[in-house]
Every structure is written in C-alpha cells, then in structure tokens.
C-alpha cells in the first residue's frame, strides 16, 4: 500500500510551515522540519553543533552530510514509516538519494515534491512582517494576520517577537542559498516524475486544496 511521503521545497516565507501543519492533520502523519532539527542542535557543543550555530547566524545552508545525519537520527524514532512530511528537504542530490534509500527499506518511495513558487516582492513582505509567539510557535503577521492586541498573543496575551533571522539581510542570504539548489532539485524531481509546482501566492486554503488534489493523482501513478 502506498503511503504519503511529501517533500516541501520553496524559499523562506513561502508558506511551507503553514501547509505542513494542515497536511500533518489531514494525513495524520509526522511533520519533519529540518529547521527544527537544526535548532535542537544549536546548543550542542560538538563540531556539528558549532557548524549549526554558524548556519543560524549567517543564513547559510547546512551541508548534505550533516542534514543526512539529522534525518538519519530522526528515522531512528520509528514513527515515520507510515508517512511523513519533509519540510525544506531534500535540497541536495546527496540527501535526496539518502531519503530514497531509506524509504526503499520499507518498499516505499517519495510520493512527490511540492515546489512552492512565489513573487519575491510578496515573499519579502510576508517574512519581514512575521511575528511569533515563542512558547507555542503560533505565527502572526503585521499586515496579513495581525494579533487582536498589538504584539500580544491572542490566546495567552504573552509578548510576540520577530525572529532574529527575519531581517532583510538574512533573508537575502537565505534566498540566495535557496536559489543555488532550486534548479538542481527541480530537475531531479522532474526527471523522476515527482514534481508538483504550486502558486504559493494564493490563499492558504486554496494552496492546501491544490496540494491535496495533486497528491491524490500522484498516489494513483
């Protein structure tokens, strides 16, 4: 039986996190965020921990070898074999091959890679206006989804923050890093007939429905 294994790729702020949360609930499968796996290691004193801190500070891309290590550790938790959403990975051929090899152990394969496409101007507006409730991870936006009380979480009333990496300088670096691997991975998944392109500028509910429809078609192949 085919199970749902999705890769979500796109520039920072394109909506991968929002869609991951919706897809996780819809398919009842885990959401694997490379960003979250990286941040869990940020206080680690190993050489990997030090490299990760540099990545977070400079908006650089973690090496394929280290991403493979983090993913490998995550698979050891044994809750991913019935399906999973891989947020912002694979972004190298090395990691794509590793993921394919791991899934083949259970006679599974990646269902599809969803590539989020968005106008850069809208991307900057989304990211630079983003606000976070650090305790829960709830996301607001100064323009598109403002809190009821300025800079306060709607549920707890606690203070909202802007992420340290949600600045124009860091965003420029992150977009540049994304563009380095975008075409390579797009071609990789296109050749494997696993690529789905989505207009991420559409309303979140429309994007969600388009993903669901595309995944349904992919499962029938």
TrEMBL record:
Q: Name one GO molecular function term.
A: kinase activity
Q: Give start and end of each Adenylate kinase active site lid domain.
A: 130-165
Signal peptide range equals none
| Keywords associated with the record | Kinase, Nucleotide-binding, Transferase
Q: Which InterPro entries match?
A: Adenyl_kin_sub, Adenylat/UMP-CMP_kin, Adenylate_kinase_lid-dom, P-loop_NTPase
Note the PANTHER family from the entry: NUCLEOTIDE KINASE (PTHR23359)
Which protein family is it in?
Answer: Belongs to the adenylate kinase family.
What's the protein name?
Adenylate kinase 4
What species was this sequence derived from? Anaeramoeba flamelloides
